[in-house]
Design brief:
There is one protein chain. By secondary structure, the chain is of the alpha/beta class. Among the domains are: 137 residues, Leucine-rich repeat, LRR (right-handed beta-alpha superhelix), CATH 3.80.10; 99 residues, Ribonuclease Inhibitor (Leucine-rich repeat, LRR (right-handed beta-alpha superhelix), Alpha-Beta Horseshoe), CATH 3.80.10. Helix content is 14%, strand content 13%. The strands form two sheets. It has a 16-stranded mixed β-sheet, with no helix packed on it. The chain has a two-stranded parallel sheet with strand order 17-18. It is globular, with a radius of gyration of 29 Å. It comes from Persicobacter psychrovividus. Keywords: Leucine-rich repeat, Plasmid, Repeat, Signal. InterPro entries: Leu-rich_rpt, Leu-rich_rpt_typical-subtyp, LRR_dom_sf, LRR_domain-containing, LRR_R13L4/SHOC2-like. This is Disease resistance R13L4/SHOC-2-like LRR domain-containing protein.
Length: 425
């Protein structure tokens, strides 16, 4: 090959290599932004939690709430960053930051804002003037009444939170916020919800934790997109009879002491997560065994005796975790063997005297907690559970155990597990 041709080829190859390795202006800008944010992290971060996060769309969530210093000059602090890349600001516990709300207009991609615990009695006009705002968190502010200006100026909101505010009434106009997907009303002194809540056709999450609310309007059952309902530690006394018409995936009724029964339609819910811990529930739907989507079931602290236990719940084959701690059970029904996907079984602090042989059919269990019961032995079928990693059996009057139990302890990864000194058979 002539030298001239060879040199041309070499030059072309070098040019192609440079083209492949050259950074685009966007890439350079992105690296600069990360460099600035990392500097801020070193200066203001606590060493454990990041003050910024990148979401799947390439936009940033900046958490000034983790900064202990005064951030009155927050916009100056962010000097040099690509303001089009900021999606969310968290100014919680920094009322001084609100003196420069005008600068928010410099962030064209800003769709979320959290200004919790900033001693606000009303929503500043500069916030109401952000046309693209979709998420607004006002937690812990002394807002006495539901701010009606939200209805007028921010009808596009998809997430809204009033947690820990002194609001006592949710007005019927809430039904006009038809884009809402998540509504957080925890620790409010509200006694009821308006029927217009049923107009929030896009609502997916509704949380009413630690409220004095006793009943829910029947119109709630119109919310076909509602996936998560949280009522834990509330004063709820009854669920709507037609609750099964909702497509709930998760319901949290923990510590609802006034709630003693679940309506029959409850079994129609496509639930995956059921939390009833420390509630007053003693009456379960007759069709509790016909909830095939159930994966996690928490029935801790219900004071259940054998006669109260909803045996049919063990007919739901997809349950992966079953928590029955702190009840009054003396035995476990044989149909526990139906739970072929069971990964965790928690029976601590009952009065169980024996386990059924069918426990050995639950071969996927990795965590088994039998502490503080009345077990004198375990069935030989326990040896079939070869994946067991966390095994707790302290505080039982054990007389003998299957010999395979020593292999289980060798595999156990729990530093709190112990091997009792009793006969092996």
């Amino acid at each position: 090959m002539p030298p001239i041709i060879g040199n041309k080829i070499l030059i072309l190859l070098l040019l192609a290599l440079c083209a492949c390795t050259a950074k685009s202006p966007e890439k350079i800008k992105e690296e600069k932004m990360i460099e600035i944010l990392n500097e801020l992290q070193q200066k203001y971060g606590d060493g454990y939690n990041s003050i910024y996060h990148l979401n799947e769309t390439g936009k940033y969530y900046i958490e000034f709430s983790r900064v202990k210093d005064d951030i009155s000059n927050w916009n100056e602090i962010l000097s040099g960053i690509d303001k089009n890349k900021v999606r969310f600001f968290d100014f919680d516990n920094h009322p001084e930051a609100l003196h420069d709300l005008a600068s928010l207009s410099e962030y064209p991609s800003l769709t979320g804002l959290s200004i919790g615990f900033c001693n606000l009695s009303h929503i500043p006009e500069k916030i109401l003037a952000i046309p693209q705002l979709k998420e607004l968190f006002l937690d812990g502010n002394p807002i006495q009444e539901f701010p009606m200006e939200i209805i007028q100026h921010l009808p596009q909101l998809t997430r809204l939170s009033f947690d820990e505010t002194p609001i006592k009434v949710i007005p019927p106009e809430i039904g006009q916020l038809t884009h809402l997907k998540d509504l957080y009303l925890n620790k409010l002194q509200i006694n009821s919800l308006p029927a217009e809540i049923g107009q929030l056709a896009n609502l997916e999450t509704l949380t009413l934790r630690e409220t004095p609310i006793k009943t829910l309007p029947d119109e709630l059952c119109k919310l076909k997109n509602l996936k998560i309902l949280e009522l834990n530690r509330s004063k709820i006394e009854a669920l709507p009879e037609n609750i099964g018409a909702v497509n709930l995936k998760e319901i949290n009724l923990r510590e609802t002491k006034q709630l003693t029964a679940l309506p029959e339609s409850f079994a129609d819910l496509p639930l995956e997560y059921l939390y009833l811990d420390d509630s007053g529930i003693k009456k379960f739907p007759k069709r509790i065994g016909d909830m095939p989507t159930l994966r996690l079931v928490y029935l801790e602290g219900l004071g259940l005796e054998d006669k109260d236990f909803p045996v049919d719940i063990l007919n739901n084959p997809n349950i992966e975790r079953l928590v029955l701690r702190n009840n009054k059970l003396t035995s476990l029904p044989p149909n526990i063997g139906n739970l072929k996907k069971l990964d965790g079984l928690y029976l601590r602090q009952n009065a169980i005297t024996h386990l059924p042989d069918e426990i050995g059919q639950c071969t996927k269990i990795t965590s088994l907690d039998l502490q503080s019961n009345s077990l004198s032995s375990l069935p030989m079928s326990i040896c079939n559970i070869e994946r067991l990693e966390s095994f707790y059996i302290q505080y039982n009057p054990l007389e003998w155990l299957p010999a395979c139990i020593d292999d289980i302890w060798e595999r156990s990864q729990s530093r709190y597990s112990y091997n009792p000194n009793c006969e092996r058979r």
